[in-house]
Specification:
The structure is a homodimer of 418-residue chains. Chain A is α/β, with parallel strands linked by helices and 418 residues long. Chain A has three domains: 15-80, Arc Repressor Mutant, subunit A (Orthogonal Bundle), CATH 1.10.10.10; 83-200 and 384-407, ATPase, nucleotide binding domain (Nucleotidyltransferase, domain 5), CATH 3.30.420; 207-380, Nucleotidyltransferase, domain 5, CATH 3.30.420. Chain A is built from 13 helices and 14 strands. In chain A, strands 5-4-3-6-9 form a five-stranded mixed β-sheet, with helices on both faces. In chain A, helix 1 crosses helix 3 and helix 8 (270-282) crosses helix 9. The interface between A and B is large, with 72 and 71 residues. The structure holds a DNA duplex (30 and 30 nucleotides).
DNA sequence: CAGTAATTGTTATGTAACTGGACAAATCAG
DNA sequence: CTGATTTGTCCAGTTACATAACAATTACTG
C-alpha cells in the first residue's frame, strides 16, 4: 500500500533491479559511472551490483566506448543471447505474437485472425500454436524462452492472471489463464489487459517514452484505454479501469454489445464504422464501397482503404468516429491531465484522418492548462503496441525472477543451453 | 520516477517513516510486535526504529494495554503534546481553518465567507488572520505549530506550491503561495488543490479510509475531483488533474464560467442550482423559495433548506443536479474503477437527496464489474474534508522533517517549550 | 494452583549493502 | 611529456537489518 504523499527524499530501492532496468533502458549501452550518477550511488557500490548481474549472465561488458576525457569506461549491455521473450496480444478478432531477445529487440512476428468468443480453451490452444510458430520462425525454441506475456481484451486481475467479467469474452470469467499457460509452458507468464499492455508498450519502446502520465487508447473493433499514472500502470480496484468504450455519449443512440445505447464503442469502434458503412451502402449512397464484392462482410479495414483512396463518405465516417473519440478524450484530459495521449489499435492506423478530429474536439472541450502541456499522437509501434507491451511485461517478470534467484546464489544456468 | 509494473516482492523503504505512519494510523495505539508484523521486519529491528522515534519526542509509550496471552505489550502512540498542525481550506466562497494536535485530532475550527477572486494578496492576508484566530481559539500559538497545509480551488503544482492557471482564480497564476506563506510563518508549508486535499482527508480520517483507489468529488459552488490511485495522490502532469467540472454534458447547454456551454459545473454546481432556482421563482413556479426576502441573493443553501423542508421544486433541482453528476461519475467509474467514491462539498451536505440520483445513474450507465466492487458514499467529514486533508498533508510534511533531521542527530527540541 | 504454551521486548552476534577515501589505469589538452 | 580528468577497484568503517537466545509476563489447562 503506497502513501498518497510520497515525499520520501530518496526512496530506498532494490538496487540490483534498478541497475538492470537502467542497462536495459539504454539502447547503446551504459557504464558503471553513469549508473552511479543516475541512481545516486557510489561507484564502488555499483561495481558490486554490476558484478552480481554479470554473474547471472544477463549482462555483458562491451569492448570499448568513446568518451570525452579520462579513463576509457567499460560498456554494459543486456546479453541478448542470454534468452528470449514472447509477447502475445489476443484481440477481439486477432492474435499477434512477437518473439524478442532479452534486450527487447523483436526477432520474429506473426498474427492471425481469430474470434475470442469461441471461449478460453480454443483460444489458448490457438495461442499455443501461434507461440510455437513464432518460435520456429525465429529459429528458437521454448528452451530458450525465459518468460511469456499475454494480453487479453477484458478486465484482468493481473495478480491472479484471470479475467473478472468481460462483455466481449463470454466464458472467460474467472478462467485461470495464467495458471493454465504456466502449466503448459513451464515458464513464468504474466497476463494483462490488452490496452494496459498497449500503454506499457508505448511507454517502454514507443511514443511518449518514459512519460510518467501516459494514456493509451486502443481503437479496434472495440475501444479500450490503458493508463500509466504517476509512473505506474493503473489497473483499478479490480482490474476494470480503462473501460472507456462504454461511456454513454448519445442518449438513445445505437445499441451496444454491452446492452446500453449510445456507447462510444457503438459510435466510433471498428464494428460501428463497418456497420454504418454497410447501412449507407444499402441506402444507395455514392461511395467506392459499393463496388466491393460482399457488402455483408464489409469491414472497418475496407472503409479505411476506401478513405485512403479518397472516398469522401469513408473519410466522413472516420472523421465522425474521431469526433466521438475526441469528446470522450476531452473528458480524460480534464480528469487525468496526462502528458501524452497515444492513439493505437487497428482503426487508428488511418493516422491524421482519425487524429485531427480528435485533436480538434480536445482543444474545443478541454481546459487550457491541461491541453497545452499534453500531446496527442498516434502509436509509434503501430499495431504492435500491445504485443510489445506484453514483451515488456514479460521482460520485467523475467528480470524479477533473475534478481530474486541470483540472491539465492543461483546463476542463470537454466537457459544457457543453445 | 516509478516503474509501471511494481512487482517488487517487498519494496525496500524508509522504515522509520513507515513506523511513524503506522503509529499515527492506529487511533488507540499500537505495539512494537504489531509493527514488526505489518512491516514484515524483525522485532529487534523495530525496537531500534522505535527508540529513535522516542528520542525525537514525537512518539511516547502508553502505560498498559490488554492482550490475549503472553507478556503485556508496551503501547505506542503519537505524543499529542509534541506540537500542533494547522490545515486551511480556501474555497471559492469561504475559508476554513482547523487547528489539530500532532496526532491529527482537531482542537479548534473556524470558517468565514470570502471571495477568492479578490486576488492572492488579500486572500493570503485573510488566511493569516484566520490562522491567528484559530490558534488563539485553541489556546495555542505559532511557536507550537510545526507545519501548515493550505488548499486552494485551482490546479496546483504542489512541488512548487503555486497555481498554474485557474479559471476561477484570476491573478493567482504562478503566484508563489507556498514561498510567501513559509516566509511569514517560518514553518514548512504545503499547498495543494482543495479537491485533492478532500480526497486525502477522507482517505486519512473519513469514508473509505486507506482505500488505495479513492475518488473524492467536491460539489460546492463549482465541482472538482481529487483522486488517490494506487495508494498515491494523482495530480497529473502539471497538477491539472481532476477538473471534472468542465466536462461537456449538454451540447449548447447553459453558459459556464469557463466560456464553454453545458459544462457539468454549469448544470449541477451550487451556482447553477441557485441560478435555476432564481429563474423558476421569477417564472412564478409554486415553491417555498418565493417567500424568501431577496430573490436576487437566493443561494444553493436556501434551496437545500427548502428541499429539506419538503419543497418539491427544490428537491427536483437537487435530483436533477445529482443526475448530471451521476452521468459524469459513471464515466469516472468506467475509466478509473475506484474502490470508493466520496461525495463532499457544500451541496453534498443534503445527503441522499443528491446521492440517490447519482447512484441510480451510475448503476444505469457503468459496467457491472466495476460498480459491484465500488461504493458511493457521502463525505463522512462533512464540510471539513479538505481542511482535514490539509492537516493530513501538513502532518506528513512535519513527519518528513522530523525523520530527516533525526538522522542528523537532532532531537525534537524546536517545539518542546510550552 | 502449578505447569505449559504463548507473546513481547531486549540483547548479542553476524551479514549484506552501502559510503568515503585512496589508488591505478586510461585518456585528452596543452 | 605533464597535468587534469574520468573510470573502475580495493579497503576500512558504518548502518540496517536478521537470527537466535533470553527474560518477562500473561492466559489457559487440568
Amino acid at each position: 500500500m503506497g502513501y498518497p504523499l510520497s515525499i520520501y527524499p530518496r526512496a530506498p530501492r532494490d538496487h540490483r533491479r534498478l541497475v538492470l532496468d537502467l542497462i536495459h533502458e539504454s539502447r547503446d549501452g551504459t557504464t558503471r559511472a553513469e549508473i552511479a550518477r543516475s541512481l545516486e550511488l557510489s561507484r564502488s557500490a555499483v561495481s558490486g551490483l554490476v558484478d552480481d548481474l554479470l554473474h547471472t549472465g544477463l549482462v555483458r561488458e562491451l569492448d570499448k566506448r568513446q568518451t570525452r576525457a579520462g579513463r576509457r569506461p567499460i560498456g554494459l549491455e543486456i546479453n541478448a543471447s542470454a534468452g528470449q521473450i514472447v509477447g502475445v496480444d489476443v484481440g477481439a478478432t486477432h492474435i499477434r505474437a512477437i518473439l524478442a531477445d532479452i534486450a527487447g529487440r523483436p526477432l520474429a512476428e506473426l498474427s492471425t485472425s481469430f474470434d475470442v468468443r469461441v471461449g478460453p480453451e480454443k483460444t489458448l490452444a490457438e495461442v499455443r500454436r501461434l507461440v510455437e510458430r513464432v518460435m520456429r520462425d525465429g529459429e528458437s525454441s521454448l528452451g530458450r524462452v525465459r518468460s511469456i506475456g499475454v494480453g487479453v481484451p477484458g478486465p484482468v486481475i493481473s495478480e491472479q492472471g484471470m479475467v473478472l467479467a468481460a462483455p466481449i469474452m463470454p466464458g472467460w470469467t474467472e478462467y485461470p489463464i495464467r495458471h493454465t499457460l504456466e502449466a503448459t509452458w513451464e515458464r513464468p507468464v504474466v497476463v494483462h489487459n490488452d490496452a494496459n499492455l498497449g500503454a506499457l508498450g508505448e511507454w517502454t519502446y514507443g511514443a511518449g517514452r518514459r512519460c510518467p502520465n501516459l494514456v493509451f487508447v486502443k481503437v479496434g473493433t472495440g475501444i479500450g484505454m490503458g493508463m500509466i499514472l504517476g509512473g505506474r500502470l493503473h489497473e483499478g480496484q479490480v482490474g476494470a479501469a480503462g473501460e472507456i468504450g462504454h461511456l454513454t455519449l448519445v442518449e438513445n443512440g445505437p445499441l451496444c454489445s454491452c446492452g446500453n445505447r449510445g456507447c462510444l464503442e457503438a459510435l466510433a469502434g471498428g464494428g460501428a464504422i463497418a456497420r454504418q458503412a454497410r447501412e449507407l451502402v444499402r441506402q444507395g449512397q455514392r461511395t467506392h464501397l459499393s463496388t466491393l464484392a460482399s457488402i455483408d462482410r464489409l469491414s472497418a479495414r475496407d472503409v479505411a482503404e476506401a478513405a485512403a483512396q479518397g472516398d469522401h463518405l469513408a473519410q466522413q465516417l472516420f472523421a465522425q468516429a474521431g469526433e466521438y473519440i475526441g469528446i470522450a478524450l476531452a473528458g480524460v484530459m480534464n480528469m487525468l491531465n496526462p502528458g501524452v495521449v497515444v492513439i493505437g489499435g487497428g482503426v487508428a492506423q488511418s493516422g491524421d484522418l482519425l487524429l485531427e478530429p480528435i485533436r480538434a474536439q480536445i482543444r474545443k472541450r478541454s481546459l487550457q492548462a491541461g491541453v497545452l502541456t499534453s500531446q496527442v499522437t498516434s502509436a509509434s509501434l503501430g499495431l504492435r503496441s500491445s504485443a510489445l507491451g506484453a514483451v515488456a511485461a514479460a521482460l520485467s517478470l523475467c528480470f524479477d525472477h533473475v534478481i530474486a534467484h541470483s540472491a539465492a546464489g543461483l546463476t542463470a544456468s537454466a537457459t544457457e543451453g543453445r
